[in-house]
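Q: Give me the 3D complex with S-adenosyl-L-homocysteine.
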Amino acid sequence: MDDETADPRPGTVYLVGSGPGDPDLLTVKAKRLLETADVVLHDKLPGPEIIETLPEDRREDVGKRAGGERTPQSEINERLVELAREGKSVVRLKGGDSFVFGRGGEEAEYLAAREVPFEVVPAVTSAIAAPAVAGIPVTHRDHASSVSFVTGHEDPTKEESAVDWEALAATGGTIVVLMGVGRLPDYTEALLEAGMAPETPVALVERGTWPGQQVATSTLETIVDARDEEGIEPPAVTVIGEVAGTRERVLEFLANESDRATERAEPTASDEV
Ligand code: SAH
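A: Here is the predicted complex, encoded as structure tokens.
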């Protein structure tokens, strides 16, 4: 363990992933840093259970500014540098893993360019964990030998879309879409047009491991209706591929289905999301 217990070091920024939301899925290192750092900068994605444990005098919510719009990344970057230069030990806490659609890479580059020491603390990403707790393995020897993690935030009909849905449809592997609740109709349509089978299983896992976790399953052709019927809202991951069908075969014996998180929760905690 050498000098690990000497954390947190003054003047250092820790880019820490919180895991998907269940406090038991924080890494030991993340938990220790959250308990001991001088200040924690966070947004809403780590989830109510983790955020509520942070002492109010040592935390800053940098998710949204007054008025509701998202705090610009440049402001967060500057705040990290400012706090570190004051000699503070700073945790930048992100939902899931900071380096998976978490802007952790941008923050690391910004800090390095200003010679601010930082450490990356990897974590359990929701891209794998949310499907897992819903009984869905992202790979499976019989069904999927690759998995792609993609953003659903973009408009697939845009010429300059950075996600090549046609190519993804051709891989035959699992596709896990993050930030993809709103544009679900657009990219499922793009995949159908690219020749993916309409009966391909699809699952939506909302607030995986949080109190109020919700899952909707259907097919590529009908998942939009299922989303609307079940009232699935962000944050949720979309799992597209044969592996999504595994859920039906394990569900009866899946003990970590939503109830566990819901049992932990205060009766009203799920309303605060
Ligand atoms: N860095 C995060 C991803 C950030 S992008 C990670 O590694 O998990 C934000 C997206 O993450 C959300 O739109 C949603 O798609 C997904 N997400 C994060 N936490 C989630 C959770 N508990 N359940 C389901 N999806 C989640």
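A quick observation: Residues 20-21, 45, 94-97, 100-102, 125-127, 130, 178-179, 205, 207-210, 234-237 surround S-adenosyl-L-homocysteine (CB under 6 Å).
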